[in-house]
Automatic annotation (TrEMBL), chains A, B:
EC number, as in UniProt: 1.2.1.26
GO molecular function, one term: 2,5-dioxovalerate dehydrogenase (NADP+) activity
Protein name listed in UniProt: 2,5-dioxovalerate dehydrogenase
Catalysis: reaction(s): 2,5-dioxopentanoate + NAD(+) + H2O = 2-oxoglutarate + NADH + 2 H(+); 2,5-dioxopentanoate + NADP(+) + H2O = 2-oxoglutarate + NADPH + 2 H(+)
Family: Belongs to the aldehyde dehydrogenase family.
Major enzyme class: oxidoreductase
Matching Pfam families: Aldedh
Coiled-coil boundaries: none
Keywords: Oxidoreductase
InterPro entries hit by this protein: Ald_DH/histidinol_DH (IPR016161), Ald_DH_C (IPR016163), Ald_DH_N (IPR016162), Aldehyde_DH_dom (IPR015590), Aldehyde_DH_Superfamily (IPR050740), ALDH_KGSADH (IPR044151)
Residue ranges of every copy of the Aldehyde dehydrogenase domain listed in the record: 38-469
Organism: Aureimonas endophytica
CDD domains associated with the record: ALDH_KGSADH (cd07129)
């Protein structure tokens, strides 16, 4: 047994003295041992001081060294073995195959960023050579590359205890960028956090990195998380969670003497547009596929299909038939935490009692800690009249908006808040209608997908897991995929700096073998 | 005479009915005719509605069309001819050669962004092809490119009536990105603004673009500017001006139901570090060069050298001698506006009366509307004890911080706020000391330059005119150079979108001939 209730402050493993947190067995609600001590203000101070001290030496490492570090973390996570999966299953209520897949994804993310470091494109190296003879004024030698922002605070997410938690996407991309990371563990999975935290700490030690490169703190209240965002040494924040939580952190970050960027992935209902041709061709099958996506992982995905938009007719009737049949067979599923289950019951309860909403179908009965899937419907008119119908209900709940025609569909789309994804189900005959909507959809969401659902976010170079506010705090970014590293970088220009003092990315002879822009032209000089 | 006191709301040229603004002859303080009507709320509403209506058709244009539009603006500015220079000289008090140079720079910026559009790298096109056979799950086809944010509000800057005003860098980069622009003219140069505004309006018409692509409003108070930032159709803001002005806009933008990015370039004192070797070799010459940079354009540059940091000794004495001699010969210079002159007199007056500060040298006496150059000094100890000594005094005022040793230099640097530039004067023997400081300087500023001064910002691909807060509101960006276009873009991912519906940048066969990342690898497929 290697779960000791410890947090990691640089090279130390120490139990916090500020209250006690317990993991909860998601399926039974019973306490898991041991208890985890919450961080004190002194712990926070020490973690921040160590991160600040680590920043310069850590970011000065060659990209290859940081790549090897990320790979070492992945290897160490693998090496935890069965204990990690079992503890994570208990704390999250998620089934083994999902968590084995999530572990693979977590390691894959770390390795993806190792590749990003070796590629070097993230540095955006640019050189405008001096033009000493230019008239009326000579041009100096100008060179640009990206540098890391500084220590980053990462908040673990409840719904991805591995892939968006201690060594998840935010941590991997910040470490890749050259930023030390302080993680505030999510209190829903402290044991999982400790196991992964120890894997990261070991990689720091084995690779001989400065100890402050990584720390992991527990928070028995909100003081430590909020203090982390307010600390002047922290220069950016990664967060996945509720809109209330994300906007609270945005406010703290904006009120600092030096405001910092907050990358909060907050809430999204991920509209699904069913075009008439697709409904006609395979309405019932789409309905079944929809329920499979809706109920995956008890519906606890940021990209869960929470809103269906379609024009009434036989095709939609078939869709509803397929969905209703499928959802009736959907077993109530253990939710991540008692609190999330409570919020889900409140959210679906509100919809059940909503005058403008009818219940179309539901899964097998829920009960303590288990969420009952629910499928509701309303008219476009009602949807447009009730803004609260856009509120995310985190879990396997979705709302069908029945439209009379394409104009109503367009009105519903125009009324929507920013989203992570929008899914289109269509056949060739629907292409013209879809093409007309595409410019609106590009403004609405970070990812547009066809004949599928947003759940299952591929970790890749062309992925965007982000979108206009309020789906995220900053729609110019993605938290999944290789582009996520850009969140933690800023450009610096060097003018007439002697060659010996230039960063390797910008030196003559291109020692890193990068693609660089010379006078604006991309090449591998 | 083509100055009619008109603003431009889409295709209309109309005098505003909300109060009257007059250009002021900077040298004499007398009113220039005609008067300019301030925009009403109805004008603002109409400009925003037109910008929103223009957004979709404008951004859908092929990059080549937008490039031709930017070039047409440049041509039209050239075609205004002498009237533009004369009016701008009167309104700004800046001399002819400076404004002829600034006009060339303005046209150069527009043409640079035409080149950026033709290159297409700003789209960051990425394709991860489908892997239908992958186990355990197939990979969908994923494609990513950048899309424009939406209509952008640009605030003209007082100190660059051409290059950072109506058709300046913010406007050029936003239009290049595909964003319609509404400019709030700076009230210091309404006539210059009208002339340039008409040139842009004509280009919109001649190129057959949607009229809302560009509007220009005057504001007789603050209501229109603030209303612009608060309007839900505006999706980003470009601003160059004071810290008070910039932070006020940041607050409005953050308090919107949908917060938006504000790119405010605000205040910077641009530290100059004089290393011992350089002081020994050419202290006096550096002193003379410093005063030439300090007094250029009456010191009214964002990158004006407002702070000198050096170790005491003979070399520094020589520098001070050179600077003192040079500043004594510096003529008092007309400042941009009576208000800027007043603020300069207040700022230098405060330093003259500051117990911790001594006056080292000054230019010929100022007087009404003319600023007298001033060079002050203090000790490192005093500098560290008085945070107000970091306040920017906009104009030809600078402060020398005398340090006893390298440790004190490091302490002074550590105490500095974020800056646009930091300049290093050094010889080969100083390289080791400079190398030690470089990591701190990279955190401090957006541009590090050697043996020169920050004034004279090259418009290029490797330029960064930006820096950590409070020099700008968002240190992840630059407002000068080709990278400035990134401020107005966000990534969108298309998953399994039928080829016919894909944007051209992502279509098979690469019709735009772009460099694209295929499976993460850069190439010109």
């Amino acid at each position: 047994m290697t779960i000791l209730g410890q947090q990691f402050i640089g090279a130390e493993a120490v139990k916090g003295a500020n209250g006690e947190i317990f993991g909860i067995d998601a399926a039974s609600g019973s306490k898991l041992t041991p208890g985890f001590g919450g961080a004190t203000k002194a712990d926070l101070e020490r973690a921040c001081a160590l991160a600040e001290a680590a920043f310069e030496p850590y970011r000065a490492l060659p990209p290859e060294e940081r790549a090897l570090f990320l790979e070492a973390i992945a290897d160490n996570i693998q090496a935890i073995g069965e204990e990690l999966i079992e503890r994570c299953m208990a704390e999250s209520g998620l089934p083994r195959p999902r968590l084995e897949g999530e572990r693979a994804r977590t390691m894959g993310q770390l390795r993806l960023f190792a590749g990003v470091l070796r590629d070097g494109g993230f540095l955006d190296a640019r050189i405008d050579p001096a033009l000493p003879e230019r008239k009326p004024l000579p041009r100096p030698d100008l060179r640009l590359n990206n540098v890391p922002l500084g220590p980053v605070a990462v908040f673990g997410a409840s719904n991805f205890p591995l892939a968006f938690s201690v060594a998840g996407g935010d941590t991997a991309s910040a470490l890749a960028a050259g930023c030390p990371v302080i993680v505030k563990a999510h209190s829903a999975h402290p044991g999982t956090s400790e196991l992964v935290g120890r894997a990261v700490q070991k990689a720091v030690k084995d690779r001989g990195l400065p100890e402050g490169t990584f720390s992991l703190l527990y928070d028995s209240g909100r003081e430590i998380g909020q203090g982390l965002v307010a600390d002047p040494r922290i220069r950016a924040v990664g967060f996945t969670g509720s809109r209330a939580g994300g906007t609270a952190l945005m406010k703290i970050a904006a009120a600092r003497p030096m405001p910092i960027p907050v990358y909060a992935e907050m809430s999204s209902i991920n509209p699904v547009l069913l075009f008439p041709g697709a409904l006609k061709a395979r309405g019932e099958a789409i309905g079944k596929g929809f329920i499979a996506s809706l109920t995956l992982g008890a519906g606890q995905f940021c990209t869960n299909p929470g809103l269906i938009i379609a024009i009434e007719g036989e095709g939609l009737d078939a869709f509803v038939r397929g969905a209703t049949e499928a959802i009736a067979a959907a077993p109530a599923a253990v939710m991540l935490t008692p609190g999330i289950h409570r919020a889900y019951c409140e959210g679906t309860g509100k919809l059940r009692g909503h005058a403008a909403v009818e219940l179309v179908g539901q899964g097998t009965e829920g009960g303590e800690l288990r969420g009952q899937a629910a499928f509701f419907a309303t008219s476009a008119e009602n949807f447009l009249a009730h803004h609260d119908l856009q509120d995310e209900v985190f879990g396997a709940s979705s709302l069908l908006v029945r439209c009379r025609d394409a104009d109503e569909v367009a009105k519903v789309i125009a009324a929507l808040e920013g989203q992570l994804t929008v899914a289109l189900h269509m056949e060739a005959e629907d292409h013209a209608a879809a093409a007309k909507l595409l410019p609106k959809l590009e403004r609405l969401a970070g990812r547009i997908l066809v004949n599928g659902f947003g759940t299952g976010v591929e970790v890749a170079h062309a992925m965007v897991h982000g979108g206009p506010y309020p789906s995220t705090s900053d729609g110019r970014s993605t938290s999944v995929g290789s582009l996520a590293i850009q969140r933690f970088l800023r450009p610096v220009c060097y003018q007439d700096l002697p060659g010996a003092l230039l960063p390797p990315a910008l030196q003559d002879g291109n020692p890193l073998g990068l693609w660089r822009r010379i006078d604006g032209k991309l090449g591998q000089d």
